[in-house]
Amino acid sequence: MPVKRSAAPADVGAFLAALAHPQDATLQRLRTAIRATDPRIGEDIKWNAPSFHVDGRHFATMQLRKTDSVLLVLHLGAGKRALQQGAIADPEGRLTWLGADRATLAFANPGEVDAHGEAMQAVLRQWMAHLPSPGAQDHPEP
Questions:
Q1: Which of 1, 52, 83, 100 is most buried when burial is the number of CB atoms within 10 A of its CB?
Q2: Where residue 46 falls among pLDDT bands split at 50, 70, 90?
Q3: Most distant CA pair in the chain, distance
């Protein structure tokens, strides 16, 4: 199966410019901080929002439904996966767990991204370490 090509950062930027979201400054600051976490991180549009991947494996997608904050949804892919309790160190206590394979980080403004950016990047590095290996099947044969 061919790997989906990522949108160039300019394409994501154009998407966000056309969106004219009330939290645009937060979105842009968060986008920059995420990409600065690891040089392998790419971005594209998934579920009508910026989504981030490494080696073709998506791990985070922004949720743009709210106008007073931006949620970053961390996920592990389509297959059944779970993280063991304590697998992700979160010393600032900013993760909201939605299940064993999904959590969110919320940012109300660009200042929060600046204040918590390093901690977020540490969480993202840990999260990416739990992604399936490149080429691993999400739904292995029984």
A1: 52
A2: confident
A3: 48
User: Class for domain 23-129, per CATH?
Assistant: alpha beta
Contact between 19 and 103 (Cβ < 8 Å): no
Percentages helix, strand, coil for the chain (3-state, rounded to 5) are 30, 25, 45
Neighbours of 15 (CB within 10 A): 15
Domain boundaries, the chain: 23-129
The closest of 48, 32, 34, 27 to 108, measured between CA atoms, is 27
Residues 6+ apart with CB under 8 A from 66: 23
Q: How far apart are alpha carbons 65 and 108 in whole angstroms?
A: 13
Residue with tokens 């410019």: 17
Angle, nearest 10°, between helix axes 9-19 and 24-35?
160
Average pLDDT over residues 99-111: 94
